[in-house]
Specification:
Blueprint lengths: L2 H6 L2 H24 L7 H21 L24
Length: about 90
């Protein structure tokens, strides 16, 4: 999940996703302890996703960002046509 995806979700959706990721992380820790973990990278990816969600929730609680329906993206600047001096 990219940060742009996280910022478009509501607080309730983010809290639910955080809870689901926490459960998944717990299951991964058990699998790792038992030697059943196949994808070793998934733990690191989960930690990063949790950090993104927690950061976004904290930014909102401090009033640094708000929920927006559309993520602001800059449109490419139009290049002005060069006119030849005649």
């Amino acid at each position: 999940m990219q940060i742009a995806d996280v910022r478009t979700k509501s607080d309730d959706e983010l809290k639910q996703a955080l809870q689901e990721l926490s459960k998944e992380a717990l299951n991964l820790r058990f699998k790792k302890a038992n030697g059943q973990l196949e994808n070793l990278v998934r733990g690191r990816l989960l930690r990063r996703e949790v950090a993104r969600i927690k950061t976004t929730l904290r930014e909102r609680s401090l009033g640094l960002t708000t929920v927006s329906a559309k993520v602001a993206t800059k449109a490419p600047a139009k290049k002005a046509a060069k006119k030849k001096a005649s």
